[in-house]
């Protein structure tokens, strides 16, 4: 593990490169809302991949204030930086959790990737907010949109979707509604537990390790 910083035009983002000497795929993880990533360094150290964990603006040591547009712009820069450092002929994978699934899908729409993992994904922030906060005029309150449906045609053929029937933040019906719109059927794995269940949960980690291993 080594700390890494990524200067942007207005801020500097901070995080870690895990397993820089690995010969496995390159992996970039995009976390959920308010997820600070330092606790995941030891988790991803167990994976045969060189993983980049960069905190969103405003979290950990990363500077600035997060907005949807800034998160997506930063994410493209993060993926480009990792590819420039390590790419060679190694596969490039994205892993997005919850909010990060929208960020990862947005990146995949403009950056060629070899595989993507979407954990607790949703159709769009508007659909998600309408479901969780139906009494608010969310389409007016959400100034920036993350629309996964609009990105589905750009996702790689190798796609893994992880979701839980017990999730109350991104309900299973929301993820299932997204799955019905996929042009090509992704690999689907259900797990038990709430929205913030650890990635080390057996069925989650087993699926992630298999997905990464198959991309070697």
What descriptive keywords fit this protein?
216 residues; alpha/beta; Rossmann fold; 8-stranded mixed β-sheet; 7 helices
Q: Would you kindly provide a brief summary of this structure?
A:
With 216 residues, the protein is an alpha/beta fold.
Can you put this structure into words, describing what you see?
The protein has 216 residues and is α/β, with parallel strands linked by helices. Helix content is 31%, strand content 20%. An eight-stranded mixed beta sheet has the order 1-2-4-3-5-6-7-8, sandwiched between helices. Strand 1 and strand 2 (12-18) form a beta hairpin. Helix 2 (68-86) packs across helix 3 (99-108). The chain is globular.
Shape, per Cα inertia axes: globular
State the separation between the terminal residues, measured CA to CA: 21 Å
- Mean pLDDT across all amino acids: 88
CATH fold descriptor: Rossmann fold
| Strand proportion | 15-25%
Report the major sheet: 8 strands, mixed
Tally of DSSP helical segments? 7
CATH superfamily grouping: Alpha/Beta hydrolase fold, catalytic domain
Question: How are the SSEs ordered, and which strands pair?
Answer:
Blueprint: E1 2-7, E2 12-18, E3 26-30, H1 41-44, E4 50-54, H2 68-86, E5 92-97, H3 99-108, E6 115-119, H4 125-132, H5 138-141, E7 159-163, H6 172-179, E8 187-190, H7 202-214
Parallel strand pairs: 3-4, 3-5, 5-6, 6-7, 7-8
Antiparallel strand pairs: 1-2, 2-4
Helix pairs in contact: 2-3
């Amino acid at each position: 593990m080594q700390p890494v910083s990524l200067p942007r035009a207005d801020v500097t983002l901070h995080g870690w490169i895990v397993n820089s000497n690995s010969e496995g795929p390159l992996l970039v993880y995009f976390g959920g809302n308010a997820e600070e990533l330092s606790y995941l360094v030891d988790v991803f150290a167990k994976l045969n991949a060189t993983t980049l964990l960069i905190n969103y603006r405003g979290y950990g040591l990363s500077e600035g204030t997060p907005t949807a547009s800034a998160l997506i712009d930063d994410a493209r820069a993060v993926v480009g930086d990792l590819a420039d450092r390590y790419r060679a002929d190694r596969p490039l994978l994205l892993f997005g959790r919850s909010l990060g699934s929208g960020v990862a899908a947005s990146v995949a729409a403009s950056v060629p990737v070899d595989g993507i993992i979407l954990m607790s994904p949703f159709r769009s922030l508007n659909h998600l907010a309408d479901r969780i906060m139906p009494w608010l005029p969310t389409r007016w309150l959400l100034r920036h949109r993350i629309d996964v449906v609009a990105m589905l045609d750009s996702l790689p053929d190798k796609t893994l979707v992880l979701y839980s029937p017990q999730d109350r933040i991104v309900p299973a019906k929301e993820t299932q509604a997204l799955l019905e719109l996929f042009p090509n059927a992704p690999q689907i794995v259900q797990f038990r537990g709430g929205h913030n269940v650890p990635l080390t949960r057996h069925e989650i980690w087993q699926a992630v390790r298999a997905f990464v291993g198959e991309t070697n």
